[in-house]
Amino acid sequence: MTVFTDVVCPFCGCLCDDLEVTVEDGHVKGVKNACGISRSKFLNHEKNRLEAPTVDGVEVPLEKAVDAAADILSTSRRPLVYGLSSTECVAIAKAVELAELAGGVIDNTSSVCHGPTILALQQVGESKSTLGEIKNRADLVIFWGSNPSQAHLRHLIRYSAMAKGRFVPNGRKDRYIVAVDIRETGTTRLADEYVKVKPNRDFELLQALRAAVRGHELSAESVAGVPREKVAELAERMKAARFGVVFFGLGLTQSEGRHMNIDAAVGLVAELNNHTKFLLTPMRGHYNVGGANTVTTWQTGYPYAVDFSRGYPRYNPGEYTSVDMLARGEVDSALVMASDPVSTFPAGVVRNLAKIPVITLDPKVTPTTMLSKVVIPVATAGVEAEGTAYRMDGVPLRLSKLVEPREGVHSDAEVLEMIIKRMGG
Amino acid sequence: MKDIIVKGGFVYDPLSGVDGERMDIHLSGGKVVEEVPERDAKVIDAKGKTVMPGGVDIHSHIAGSKINIGRLLRPEDHRKDPVPRSKHTRGGVGYSCPSTFVTGYRYAQMGYTSVMEAAMPPIGARHVHEELNDTPIIDKAAFTLFGNNYFTLKYVKEGDKEKLKAFIAWLLKATKGYAVKIVNPGGVENWKWGRNVDGLDGNVEGFDVTPRQVVTMLAEANEELGLPHTIHLHCNNLGIPGNWETTVETMDAVAGVKPARGRENTIHVVHCQFNALDGDSWMTLKSGAGKIAKYVNGHPHVTLDMGQVIFTDTTTMTGDGPWQFRLHGLTGNKWVNSDVEMEAGAGVVPYTYKQNNPANSIQWGIGLELALLVKDPWRVYMTTDHPNGGPFIYYPKVLAWLMSRKARTDTMLESNKAVMKKTTLAGNYREYTFNEVAIVTRAATAKVLGLKHKGHLGVGADADVSVYDVDPSKWRPSQYAEIERAFRLASYTIKGGEVVVKDGEVVSTPLGSTYWVKAETPPELEQELVKELEADFKDYYTVSFRNYPVEDAYLPTQRVVKAQGGAWK
Amino acid sequence: MDKLKVTLVSGRTVQQGIGLEEGKTSENYVKSVSHVQLCPEDAAKMKLKEGDAVSVETRHGSVVVYWRPSKELEGGMVFFPYGPWANQVYGYETEGTGMPIFKGIEATVAPTRGKVKSIEELVKSLGGDRK
Predict the structure, then answer these.
(1) Which ipTM score applies to this complex?
(2) B281 to each of B285, B359, B360, how far by Cα in Å?
(3) Which of A324, A287, A387 lies closest to A82, judged by CA?
């Protein structure tokens, strides 16, 4: 029996690295310090696994599946490589290499998640920090369109609300928490203040706050359903904070306005920097979507939706983003790794995905594998394969290999390398 | 790997005392050797060409979270300069924030074979090394940030130099770093409350120490450890007119520090141009280069690099968080700020240097003035602080300005007249020789970095050689365009005994080595230090102590340089 | 009254997270994403009983799912856990951003006698049954 300590959890952008995992006879038997979802990942990692490589639903040896994948991509005119967020960085780098070799497009899940945050950054920037700064200094924490009580379970105790820090010795008592959302959630309930905003009206509220911070008096009686006095009060509270932070999530990126919502948030925070210290941090979902963006950016210059059809990287969200390409019926083959687009894309584009040959690498059975022509089982990164993952704030940590994958199951990186070699790369 | 003879070129190897002599260079087994038999060797005809050791860039931002934020921020910069893939090379993007593959290719195409990443935040060291592993051809190292580190400030406050030395040794090992980098000491810590320091004797909040104390103790610790390079310092008050005074004060603060064995220098001031501003506002801006040069000429303990401005659109990125916010305020340009817990900060802001802008033209003049007024070429090095002053692909242009008064005059005539009125550049007739160019781009930088096998072509040196298509015996300074052409795309670049660039094209892309520095610490002291670090990690960091040091997996090709070592109390 | 006009919002839940890590075909996962959450008053308006199915319709499509009460929601707001059932009713227009809208869209909810598809049936209806 081995007890692994300081294990990095491969689930969400929190990338907690204090887990304790017990392994016996090559199987994970117990896990400590993990949230409920993390426990499920470790304790259930052997459940619902893909049994063997398949082509058209028929079990084949791995080489045959690799051959089939290579053939599909080599003869394809507009291949799409998609996913990347739930695996480690060497695999991501291999995916970029594969997309370049195939002359196709590489995209990752930020396309339908925090892509708008990136678009906003490219327009106006972002003022952020690593999570330790919040833990040590933040006396005002605002969650906007984000619900860590359901999606980032240990964020509050490790980094933002309950955590004790250098200048926040009493943890929760030294912080004032505001939650801005369209509905009540576990996060709004634990907050000191819940600001209810009308759906799709965050942009107005952010801009109004910015105006109030700048000293303008609002003429409207209410903004986005929030009374004028409350807006002024919130602006004052933000200005008076010693160190404030806005954590924002899909409430801003996935509602109307998308990147303009983030643009407004960035502008508000930049304005506040004229008065006090203020930051904002996107709550990244998948544990290595940060890595997907980071690796793709350093290798190609661009974070997602990168086209290689001309032999050099090109970037144009809306044109090379997966949902748009699939909607237009432009893609004629796809390789999916470390994600499940059949579950996460709107049905209209899934129907188009179903019409083309799809190659999927995944540890488990998913709706995407059920729809794929070629399916290759792979090792679970962070449990059966090591590598790097980037936390929501950009901090890179090393994922562990705690157990061996089943016989015949390779890592994402190894499988991609096989396909690349078969394609002559 | 075949032996190589680089035959008949004009060789500039200042460290070996070779100044334009026509001679052959023999390479075998990745090293320079006395002689190899010609019949088994690949012969490279360098007749009529200039031969130098491979370039060694002492300060550039090429790998890590800061430059990657720059890449992310600037798709519009990339679109200007897409780089298609080829038989031997991956595709990518260039200009001010090049992708990693292109960074390696383009440096190699200019005949550079070693590049130092200027600033590595410790908690992000893994990221730096991952990017360096994707930067082909060149050898590299990264400088670890120390100047606003919680533990540095703590030990300075406690006056515990031995502990500080132990910490430096420990952190260099944990991050696989090469040198002690300091950026706006104290200022970046204050920026974590939205504030700054106003000079060397300002107050570092929460620690009640001054930047002067931080710089002095780090310099002393650095020299006592006998680290191969001195402290590498970005001074306080960068970008503020009148800051030349702070810069001279800073240099003087360490005048009394005893250098390590075998050297006289104790401080390297980076991208000095940005810290050589005189006047008291942007309206009354003038050059402080003369005052800086006067001090440097009279004090052998100082080295510096230029930080030359190029008139183009580029991307500023430094660890100086408050300065970057200030620049955002001055320009209104998009701004990314990135504070790093317990350690450092960073900021990225696009910026355009315009020829018709008086301040920019003065800044352009200052960088060159520094190189021309500092008499000893072994103490002033050619950089643009890529990409802050301009993209590294413009290095050949800087060389042209250094080597040719006409090149400077031609640019001056196109620029705002302020450069002629507010700097002494117009009246400076000095022109760098090929030998001096070799010094400020290779020999001196390798020497001051303590890279014993770089920057020269003596027997035993690494077989890193550049061949440039310009005949120094026929060249005249009026032909500065030839310098730009020749140094932009080398005839040959040889790295570790392998031809990697031929006629300006990349023909091979081996992975270079990553250098880092190992300093020994007395075991009991190290144990004591580790206990203290563990306790503070638990309370204040958000990663576990055990997960912090960079694993060997991140340095597939590493070369360790041992610190000289010294006495401990 | 049968059909209710609502605002639809999708998001993650802990149950969905636990389920998906077990596997997307696991009972836990399927249960966590094949239902909508309604405020009790809206459910009462539609005379819904436990175990009933409802039809959720937007201009992009419709889907039959189970329902659960949630006291966190106020009248007119419906929470639909993110997953393949929810994606039946979201559209793919991104207006050049790459991002469809998954929150705050107009929908109607009505009781139905329709059956909630199994995950296999759902995937098949999307055109895939390669297994």
Answers:
(1) 0.97
(2) 6, 10, 14
(3) A324
Going by their DSSP bridges, the two strands A396-399 and B380-381 should be labelled as unpaired
First to last CA, chain B: 49
Q: Which of B66, B150, B193, B341 to mutate to test the interface with A (most CBs of A within 10 A)?
A: B341
A positions 195-214 inside 8 Å of C (CB)? 199-200
HEC readout, B290-359: HHHHHHHHHCCCEEEECCCCCCCEEEEEECCHHHHHHHHHHHCCCEEEEEECCCECCEEEEEECCCCCHH
What is the pLDDT averaged over residues C41-67?
95
Task: Say if residues A37 and A46 touch (Cβ distance below 8 Å).
Answer: no
User: How confident is residue A142, by pLDDT bands cut at 50, 70 and 90?
Assistant: very high
Query: What is the C-alpha to C-alpha distance for residues A251 and C9, in angstroms, rounded to an integer?
Result: 9
Q: CA nearest A363: which of A339, A344, A345?
A: A339
Question: Across all residues in chain A, what is the average pLDDT?
Answer: 96
Tens of pLDDT, residue by residue over B14-37, are 999 999 999 999 999 999 999 999
Binned at pLDDT 50, 70 and 90, residue C131 comes out as very low
Q: Residues A345-387: pLDDT tens digits?
A: 999 999 999 999 999 999 999 999 999 999 999 999 999 999 9
**Is the distance from CB of A353 to CB of A35 less than 8 angstroms?**
no
Q: Where is A55: in which H helix or E strand?
A: strand A54-55
Do A304 and A316 form a contact (C-beta atoms < 8 A)? no
For the residues of A176-216, what is the DSSP string, one character each? Answer: EEEEEESS--HHHHHSSEEEE--TT-HHHHHHHHHHHHTTP
pLDDT of residue B568: 86
Query: Cα B167 vs. chain centroid, distance in angstroms?
Result: 23
Residue B265 buriedness (CB in 10 A; 0-12 / 13-18 / 19+): buried
- Residues in A closer than 8 angstroms to C17, CB to CB, are 11-12, 36-37, 40, 150-151
Contact A122/B68, CB-based, under 8 Å? Answer: no
pLDDT tens digits for range A146-157: 999 999 999 999
* DSSP state letters, C66-112: EEEE-TTPPTTEEEEESSTTGGGS-----TTSS----EEEEEEEEEE
Angle at Cα B176 formed by Cα A90 and Cα B124, nearest 5°?
60
Helices B65-73 + B125-133 axis angle, to 10: 70
Q: What is the pLDDT at residue B565?
A: 86
* Cβ–Cβ contact C69 with A under 8 A: no
Closest partner residue to B334 (CB to CB) among A89, A93, A123 is A123
pLDDT the model gives residue C108: 97
Instruction: Measure in Å the smallest separation between the Cα of A21 and chain B Cα atoms.
Output: 15
Cβ atoms B344, B183 nearer than 8 A: yes
Of A151, A259, A370, nearest to C97 by CB-CB distance is: A259
- Whether residue B546 and residue A6 make contact (CB cut-off 8 A), yes or no, is yes
> How many angstroms from the chain centroid is the CA of residue B123?
21
Nearest to A294 by CA among B421, B328, B131, B564: B131
Q: Is C6 on the interface with A (CB under 8 A)?
A: no
Residues 6+ apart with CB under 8 A from B393: B94, B95, B106, B110, B488
Q: CB C126 to CB A199 under 8 A? A: no
Where on the phi/psi map is residue C76: left (φ > 0), alpha (ψ -120 to 50), or beta? left
Q: Is B47 helix (H, G, I), strand (E, B) or coil?
A: coil
What contacts A208, CB < 8 A, 6 or more positions away?
Answer: A218, A220, A223, A224, A231
**Rg of chain C over all Cα atoms, to the nearest angstrom:** 14
| Amino acid at residue number B481 | A
Q: Please report the pLDDT score of residue C129 as a whole number.
A: 61
pLDDT over 90 percentage in chain B: 99
Nearest chain A residue to C85 by CA: give it: A343
CA dihedral B254→B256→B262→B266, nearest 10 degrees, is 0
